[in-house]
Write a structure and sequence with these properties.
Length: 331
């Protein structure tokens, strides 16, 4: 047979080794290719923001409302350039008012009383650094906030759930005339100043469940939905006839509080009233229906929950004649 010289064998071996080395190198380049950092948005679940007031009653079983309280924007238009990524650690950002030279803004000592609201920035830069701004919506869920951040003047929807906010001050929403929804669920809010929400002409939804409130502030007449479940609100914490002038109110949910009676009068617009798990023992026969008008029918008010209260509803047989269905409770 023909013998190959040692130099020929060396060439063949080099070629084989080069081929084998090329495959791992290609895989290494693929592995080294940088990937988009999705952790910036790991706390944001936009699937929770797709329910509107218009289709609310059609999609949800009103009697099961407490288990489904993630609400959606009314599909705001998202423009290019409005996305401000949420930083990895908000603690590393400068405080509002801190200079570029690093001089920190002086903070008042704890226990010094109410802190005046921060000025509203022209472009909303502070809140859009701490939170995520999409169009006119500001998402501040689980951002470690201890107070309401300064918001852009055109804010329409604010989500600041799962934070450590302790109070709502009268200046927190000054000038936000387009604000339609405020969601402060699952904070530590123990008080809200009387006029904290009163001057918001467009506010439709105020969501305050799972806080430490003992009283409700004044409410704007534009309100459609109020959710203050799982607080410590007693009847003394409600203003007299607190809901009488809320002619657009459809959903009033005050379950799991410390109410002694049903807050009356209730507006004719009401569709859903949840007062379960309170301390209600009695009620007036005119609470829901006008006893002087036996022909009255309140077709809209079809969801009333009074279960978990000491009241025996069978003692008030004439209190429900105008309702399309009996309340849920003890008979």
């Amino acid at each position: 047979g023909v013998r190959m010289c040692p130099l020929g064998w060396l060439g063949v071996a080099s070629l084989c080794l080069g081929t084998l080395w090329a495959v791992p190198a290609k895989e290494r380049r693929k592995a080294d290719k940088p990937k988009a950092d999705l952790s910036l948005y790991e706390n944001l679940d936009l699937d929770n923001y797709d329910l509107t007031l218009d289709n609310y009653g059609e999609i949800l079983d009103l009697s099961n409302y407490e288990e489904l309280y993630d609400y959606g924007d009314l599909v705001p238009k998202i423009e290019v350039g409005t996305l401000a990524p949420r930083p990895r650690d908000p603690k590393t950002l400068p405080e509002l008012g801190e200079t570029t030279a690093g001089t920190p803004k002086l903070q008042p000592p704890s226990g010094a009383g109410p802190v005046p609201a921060a000025p509203i920035p022209g472009q909303g830069l502070p809140s859009c650094q701490l939170c995520l701004c999409l169009g006119t919506s500001v998402y501040c869920d689980d951002a470690g906030l201890e107070r309401i951040p300064a918001l852009p003047a055109d804010t329409t929807y604010l989500y600041a759930r799962f934070n450590r906010i302790a109070a709502v001050r009268s200046g927190d929403f000054t000038g936000l005339e387009k604000l339609k929804r405020i969601d402060l669920s699952s904070n530590s809010i123990s008080w809200a100043e009387a006029d904290a929400f009163r001057s918001l002409p467009s506010l439709q939804e105020l969501l305050l469940p799972e806080n430490l409130l003992t009283a409700l502030p004044e409410l704007p007449r534009s309100l459609v939905r109020l959710d203050a479940r799982l607080n410590r609100i007693g009847s003394a914490g409600l203003r007299p006839e607190a809901f009488r002038d809320l002619k657009q109110l459809q959903f009033l949910h005050l379950s799991d509080n410390q109410l002694d009676f049903i807050p009356v009068p209730l507006p004719e617009s009401l569709r859903s009233l949840h007062l379960q798990n309170n301390k209600i023992q009695t009620m007036h026969e005119d609470t829901f229906c006008d006893s002087q008008d036996q022909g009255q029918i309140r077709r809209g008010l079809e969801d009333i929950r009074l279960d978990g209260n000491p009241i025996n509803l069978s003692l008030f047989p004439n209190a429900f004649f105008c309702l399309p269905r009996l309340p849920t409770g003890r008979f």
